[in-house]
Amino acid sequence: MTRPLRQPEVSRRALLAGMAGSAAFLAMPSAVLAQAIAPNPIFRHGVASGDPDATSVVLWTRLSSDAPVEGTWELSTTPDFAEVAKTGPFSTGADRDYTVKVLAEGLEPGGIYYYRFRVGDALSVLGRARTLPEGQLDRLGIALMSCSNYAFGFFNAYDAIARDADVDFVLHTGDYIYEYGGKDGWGADVARRIGRVHDPLHDIVSLTDYRTRHAQYKTDAGAQAMHANHTLLACWDDHESANNPWVGGAQNHDPATQGDWATRRAASIRAYFEWMPVREPEWLKVKGRTRMQFWRGYSFGDLATLHTIETRHTARARQIDYMDYADTITDAASAERFKKEVLGAPDRPILSAECEADLSAALTRSVEQGQPWRIIGCPMVIARVEVPDVVKLGLVPDPSEKLAKARTKEELAKLAYDPAVAFAWKGKYNLPDYTDAWGGYPWARERLYDLSRKAGAGDLVFLSGDSHSFWINDLADDEGRPAGIEFGTAGISSPGDFISSGFGEATSRALDKAYAEHIPEVTWTDNMHQGYVRVEFERERGMATFVGVDTVLTPSYRTLVLRRAPFERQGKEVALI
């Protein structure tokens, strides 16, 4: 039996039941599952809203059809649609995979609206959308989520977010879909067991592949509930295209068998814009941008600015592969040289010049307007997560003997695939856990911190994804000056790295503890659960609540609060308390 976090009143925070008729909707209990009522089959992928400003919001749905479709969208200030505030026509067809995306304009700032789509007598489920507030605002609740992998489990955390009465907007920091496939691919064994095998079965490469995968993810009941209840703010990470991309390719892309990288990337981006409630470039206030330049700035009255960033396709330098340098790292001195001269080499960017300029302007404007909070929607963890010596701590076996016996690079490479060996080696030299995260780009990280300080905003709150772990991190720049705080979310369904690497429950918990005790910037971390983080901002302080779900293997689940982390403004800084 599902247990909601809270039983909100419909009149205050309507939890949408997906009903076409108002009487039935208003009669439903406030905690009803949004997926309890089946939508009209022509609207089998639900509805969504997103990418708002103060007077407009994107509305989305998809028609299950094999011929062009015309219809109307409707928007009202009440769920019974007693009065239709806005309406307009839409048309769609095969050229955009029968998706519908409209920009509802001329709305009131801080408004709550209900919307639906109509084709003849067929009605979509009901959705609820918000515009950004203006003027005085005393509270903002954001649900941080990331890493929803269909094959690994049901999106129960999405459903929990849909029912969370303290959430105003939802922020997805990437890995909304995964590109993996194959009968023996990552998660395939779990997928077969629970009936969630990826479609198509192979790694997705073509436009049709990406469209099909997006369609599959939007059939999940929890996903439909979350999208129907809350307006989405989003950025992407890597798996929306392929694992670990950079401007010239990706780790999970083989040109010999999968063709041109630029073609594949373009297909992934096109499908993303078709299937997500995000603004098209022509709907942006800044003209001349492309879909690839996918970053956004949101202002919440006089309380906060939130800016998302694009870290994959517009600037990122190629990731450093430890295997290319393993034979040169032989002691503490050579490890330090590697960190400074290879990982820390100048001009290895993550953010494009245009993204940096927009971010700088947004932070400067926020400071000048006196907003207390500046939030970064960040696809990857930005804290220094340098692995402690897990062998000395007695957490993993010493691999020295195995490594000493390796005579060739091939033998070393085989050992590198053993998670315990690779982990122990990184810990011996206190190396970053992943070179694909900000830890592999210290020059770029310091550049971002410097940009923030120059804007008068050395007090950032990072809301981060990617790692499949929960995080509370206290950030500092290279000179030890405070750079803000970070809250990171575990996956919606993707498993924690320690568990998925085969370390077992006891060792995985011990590794979480060791990270918090031996990594200076890490206050707390948990890789044992899936879930989300609710971050609430008030005028001078806030609270991050880490919400886990007890299972993703069935659609019946319970929620549990794993940790609460209060924080506050202290002069020109922000601090954990």
UniProtKB/TrEMBL annotation:
- Write out the entry's keywords from A to Z: Signal
Q: Where is the Phospholipase D N-terminal domain?
A: 45-131
Q: Which residue positions does the secretion signal occupy?
A: 1-34
Pfam (any one):
PhoD_N
Residue limits of the PhoD-like phosphatase metallophosphatase domain?
A: 143-542
Answer whether the UniProt record assigns the keyword Zinc-finger to this protein.
no
What protein does this entry describe?
A: Alkaline phosphatase
